[in-house]
């Protein structure tokens, strides 16, 4: 029972922090340092990420349906080319694949660094606030433009940086999209479609690289992380609609400062 309760707590944390721009990895590293929590383990980690992956698939099922029907993702430009949209997602996924696979051991070693996670949380907070202040200036009035390959690469580089603990994947990728002139809604949708490839690919690699132990806690954790993730995804899109994503910045910065002071 204690083990299942622990899985439920981690599932709730995963569901909340995976989509809200507060860094799930940063919260996990600091929670381990503050409270002495054990690592969830590879199998549970896969299950929780698959749960949040499922929430993306359910939330964006209409857009996925458009891709399967041969339509594109770029709603603003009326792009009807599914192959172009898929190629954009491939381009955006290349940087994270290079970093995640080529530097896997080094990146995993960073998850033992609570000081690094704290510093990166501060950086996440600064980026979120700065994006709100700069987005109208940097984009030079090109907001709501069609997503281009250079834009996809910029968002992909932001996703690669977010492999580091403490950097929010959603926060960095959506902010990158906003700064190159893509609307908040399209930036978020493209960001989470990138996440489908990133999360699915990482889970596949971990599954084939070692034995996977199945337990009731895994299924419970997967379902809970998916349900919580779905509602947090809905909340985030409402926040983006009102251009209030910056409100998570002070929280990230404060948590990072506390981490540096106390740890």
Number of helices: 12
| Count of β-strands | 0
Distance between the termini: 31 Å
* Structural class by secondary-structure content: mainly alpha
Mean pLDDT comes to 87
Oligomer type: single chain
Beta-strand residue percentage: under 5%
Largest sheet composition: none
Spell out the helices and strands N to C: HHHHHHHHHHHH
- Summed up, the domain count is 1
Regions with little confidence, pLDDT below 50 for 5+ residues? none
- The level of helicity is over 70%
**What is the CA-atom radius of gyration, in angstroms?**
18 Å
Shape: globular
What would you note in describing this structure?
- The structure is a single chain.
- With 263 residues, this protein is mostly helical.
- The protein has one domain (2-262).
- It is 76% helix and 0% strand.
- It has twelve helices and no strands.
- It has helices spanning 2-19, 24-35, 42-59, 61-68, 82-102, 104-109, 114-138, 149-161, 169-179, 184-209, 216-241, 248-262.
- The model has no long low-confidence stretch (mean pLDDT 87).
Features:
single chain; 263 residues; mainly alpha
Summarize the SSE layout with pairings.
Blueprint: H1 2-19, H2 24-35, H3 42-59, H4 61-68, H5 82-102, H6 104-109, H7 114-138, H8 149-161, H9 169-179, H10 184-209, H11 216-241, H12 248-262
Short overview:
With 263 residues, this protein is mainly alpha-helical.
């Amino acid at each position: 029972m204690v083990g299942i309760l622990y899985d439920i707590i981690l599932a709730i944390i995963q569901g909340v922090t995976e989509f809200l721009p507060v860094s799930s990895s940063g919260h996990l590293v600091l929670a381990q340092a503050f409270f002495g929590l054990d690592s969830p383990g590879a199998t549970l980690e896969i299950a929780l990420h698959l749960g949040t992956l499922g929430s993306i698939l359910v939330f964006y099922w209409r857009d996925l349906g458009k891709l399967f029907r041969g339509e594109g993702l770029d709603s603003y430009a009326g792009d009807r080319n599914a192959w172009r949209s898929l190629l954009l997602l491939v381009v955006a996924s290349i940087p994270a694949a290079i970093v995640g696979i080529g530097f896997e051991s080094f990146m995993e070693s960073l998850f033992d660094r609570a000081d690094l996670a704290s510093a990166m949380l501060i950086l996440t907070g600064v980026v979120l606030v700065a994006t709100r202040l700069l987005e109208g200036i940097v984009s030079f009035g090109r907001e709501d433009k069609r997503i281009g390959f250079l834009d996809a690469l910029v968002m992909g580089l932001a996703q690669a940086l977010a492999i580091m603990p403490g950097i929010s994947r959603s926060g960095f990728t959506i902010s990158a999209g906003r700064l190159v002139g893509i609307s908040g809604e399209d930036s978020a949708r493209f960001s989470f479609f990138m996440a489908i490839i990133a999360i699915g690919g990482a889970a596949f690699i971990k599954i084939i690289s070692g034995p996977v132990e199945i337990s009731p806690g895994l299924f419970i954790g997967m379902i809970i992380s998916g349900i919580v993730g779905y509602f947090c995804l809905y909340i985030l899109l409402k926040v983006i609609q009102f251009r209030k994503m910056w409100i998570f910045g002070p929280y990230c910065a404060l948590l990072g400062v506390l981490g540096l002071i106390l740890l």
